[in-house]
Amino acid sequence: MEIQITDEEIKNVKNDLNNAKQRVHLVIFRTNHSIDDKPSMSLITDYQTFLNAKNKFDHSDLKIIRDILPVTDNLACWAIMQHKLATHDYEEKAVIINKLAFFTNQVLLENKLPSNS
What we know:
Number of strands: 3
Number of domains: 2
Largest sheet: 3 strands, antiparallel
Distance between the termini: 23 Å
Shape: globular
């Protein structure tokens, strides 16, 4: 099953992200293996969620590596996949997770960071 993203969706989400920057901003942070014994990776989230995770995993080394991300088509696609992951059936989740990983890596590359393995 292929998950499609239309140009109109991207345009609308980019507008939403730009408007939301007044209240909340997105960051890229790096995880540390001490959280769950998995390799470090870079993730995208809003700043408040990052702070909540950092407080929850106080023994870990979560570090913001890019603050206040530029709103790009890839970031909009990442946001669309995040939303779809929370709202779609279990059968579609594997495809959505793969797309989410793809767009996460695209955003990382746009921000001159190495992609996740």
